[in-house]
Q: What sequence folds into this?
């Protein structure tokens, strides 16, 4: 079974408030949504962001729009106005999630957006 990065299967929208990060993962095709539900769990996201030491990761399923919403607590170094680092918020961290590799059944690969360097 091939493994693909999430960016081939979905796109992301983000937001940050204080020290809380919100990442929505939206499937490119409805057929991909059950795979995302199965593979992109709270535990998988917590492991992906382990270096940021989230105190909690909560997943909300939005099946009517084929999306998952993740809320990660305490990952923004105190928040945008409190952190001394640059670009570790919102959009930058959504790209980190989109780099997560998951196994994709052969029958679903046709829905992936594969670039010239992938595949």
A:
């Amino acid at each position: 079974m091939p493994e693909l990065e999430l960016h081939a299967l979905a796109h992301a929208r983000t937001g940050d408030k204080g020290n809380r990060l919100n990442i929505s993962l939206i499937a490119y095709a409805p057929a991909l949504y059950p795979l995302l539900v199965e593979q992109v769990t709270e535990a998988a996201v917590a492991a992906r962001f382990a270096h940021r030491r989230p105190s909690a990761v909560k997943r909300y399923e939005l099946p009517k729009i084929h999306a998952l919403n993740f809320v990660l607590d305490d990952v923004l170094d105190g928040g945008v106005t409190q952190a001394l680092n640059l670009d570790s918020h919102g959009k930058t961290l959504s790209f980190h999630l989109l780099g997560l590799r998951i196994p994709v059944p052969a029958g679903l690969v046709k829905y992936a957006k594969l670039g010239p360097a992938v595949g």
In short: The radius of gyration is 14 Å.
